[in-house]
């Protein structure tokens, strides 16, 4: 999984630039607060929300513990129903499989349902390099694609754009947009509908992801709000679905829990307008399921980090995060922005780059994300665990070793406190050199004349 092209650097550098954009901050605040309010309303209607949340967590944890068995069950069920299953260990293999399948049809264009997995592996770019054009059909993804832009939100990829900006993009890039197009939402949606209708009717190949897979029957499930997914899933002659291996659920009964959790947490609706399910190959259509690993088994092996694989991509954590609200999704440099991206991306890609090493610090650890998560992912816990694994600068490591040495013995700490109190007037307000980054963002408290230890000893004698 590569960093978005054109977005170098690490999170601090990216976010420092983003917070200077007042229009971006306004767009994000307005959108996230609207979604947050709707979510709170529909979640508040359910007296058993806490129990549903616990059930979702338990189902996901059970599935991950027995993932090997359920994946084999899924494969057998899909192939029994006439579909074909392909296993992809990484992005390169997944891209190669999908490209070969498209080429076998003789087609040079495909339509796509919104899919985080295909963004993760850079499928559109790989197909383009092979002479195949991928057309996004989700309205927000279409806006991003036409604007030569990058998604910035899991649920609403174009959340950083307002309707005036979208109108300008349509007029400049759509080609068949009406000259008198206004920025009214209904007019923009109608222009997109007319633009996409020809694609739906003409395309012979569609590519999708899936929100869930049911191992019991080999069924794939897509939840969406616009109907473009239903068009892509039913009209083309060939359907290729690229799905992360963690999207499994054991039974249809388990799906019932998530059909309550996901819509409320994502769009603030009681249920999605379109819930599409398909099992294997339907009449007149060829179906291929590409099961994607791409680092997921490595995440599964981590006792703390594996809980990130519970994620159902609802984006509730983004909508309550104070950091995301101010910095936006592009600052994270990955298809997975926000709190979940800060723990999922470094685990999938590793902590080798400056960007990935900085993402665990893209949080205040306020815990709002954990409270909002419908499957109870303790994101702050994983962030802290990842921070411990980051290769820190030499000076910081030396400082931590020195602190550890002092704190390891009571007598050392007592001596250090007495020494600090005697030389408190000589302590600088700003540390020199690279250490200045610490004091520039923190207020150094005044060192008291007397430590608590000394006060206690004096008063205890009295």
From TrEMBL:
Q: What is this protein called?
A: L-lactate dehydrogenase complex protein LldF
The UniProt entry, under Pfam families, shows: Fer4_8, LUD_dom, LutB_C
Q: Identify the residues that the record assigns to the LUD domain, covering every copy.
A: 73-282
Which GO terms of the molecular function aspect are on file?
4 iron, 4 sulfur cluster binding; metal ion binding
The UniProt record lists the Lactate utilization protein B C-terminal domain at 389-459
Source organism of this protein record: Nonomuraea dietziae
Q: Keywords of this protein's UniProt record, alphabetized?
A: 4Fe-4S, Electron transport, Iron, Iron-sulfur, Metal-binding, Repeat, Transport
Domain 4Fe-4S ferredoxin-type: start-end pairs:
308-377
What GO biological process terms does the UniProt entry carry, in alphabetical order?
lactate metabolic process
Q: Which PANTHER family match?
A: LACTATE UTILIZATION PROTEIN B
- Keyword Oxidoreductase assigned: no
């Amino acid at each position: 999984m590569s960093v978005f092209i054109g977005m170098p650097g690490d999170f601090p550098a990216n976010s420092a630039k983003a917070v200077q954009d007042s229009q971006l901050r306004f767009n994000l605040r307005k959108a996230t607060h609207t979604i947050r309010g709707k979510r709170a309303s529909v979640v508040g209607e359910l007296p058993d929300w806490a129990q549903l949340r616990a059930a979702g967590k338990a189902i996901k944890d059970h599935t991950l513990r027995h993932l090997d068995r359920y994946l084999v069950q899924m494969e057998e069920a899909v192939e029994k129903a006439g579909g074909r299953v392909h296993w992809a260990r990484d992005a390169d293999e997944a891209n190669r499989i999908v490209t070969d399948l498209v080429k076998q049809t003789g087609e040079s264009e495909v339509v796509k349902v919104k899919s985080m997995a295909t963004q993760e592996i850079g499928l559109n770019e790989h197909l383009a390099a092979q002479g195949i054009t991928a057309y996004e059909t989700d309205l927000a993804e279409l806006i991003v694609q036409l604007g030569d832009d990058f998604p910035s939100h899991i649920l609403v990829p174009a959340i950083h754009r307002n309707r005036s900006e979208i109108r300008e993009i349509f007029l400049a890039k759509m080609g068949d947009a009406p000259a008198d197009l206004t920025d009214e939402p209904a007019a923009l949606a109608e222009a997109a509908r007319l633009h996409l209708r020809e694609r739906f009717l003409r395309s012979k190949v569609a590519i999708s992801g899936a929100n869930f897979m049911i191992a019991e029957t080999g069924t794939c499930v897509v939840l969406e709000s616009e109907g473009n997914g239903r068009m892509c899933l039913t009209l083309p002659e060939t359907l290729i679905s690229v799905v992360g291996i963690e999207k499994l659920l054991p039974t249809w009964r388990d799906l019932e829990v998530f059909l309550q959790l996901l819509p409320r947490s994502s769009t603030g609706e009681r249920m999605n307008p379109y819930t599409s399910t398909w099992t294997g190959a339907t009449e007149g259509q060829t179906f291929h399921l590409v099961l994607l690993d791409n680092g997921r088994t490595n995440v599964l092996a981590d006792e703390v980090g594996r809980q990130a694989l519970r994620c159902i991509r609802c984006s509730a954590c983004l909508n309550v995060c104070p950091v995301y609200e101010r910095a936006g999704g592009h600052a994270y440099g990955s298809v997975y922005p926000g709190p979940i991206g800060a723990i999922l991306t470094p685990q999938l890609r590793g902590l080798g780059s400056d960007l990935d090493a900085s993402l665990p610090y893209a949080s205040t650890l306020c815990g709002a994300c954990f409270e909002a998560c419908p499957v109870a992912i303790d994101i702050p816990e994983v962030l802290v665990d990842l921070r411990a694994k980051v290769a820190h600068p030499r000076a910081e490591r030396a400082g931590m070793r020195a602190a550890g040495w002092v704190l390891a013995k009571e007598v050392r700490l007592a001596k250090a406190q007495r020494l600090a109190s005697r030389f408190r007037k000589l302590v600088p307000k700003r540390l020199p050199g690279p250490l200045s980054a610490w004091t520039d963002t923190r207020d150094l408290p005044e060192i008291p004349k007397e430590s608590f230890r000394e006060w206690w000893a004096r008063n205890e004698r009295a």
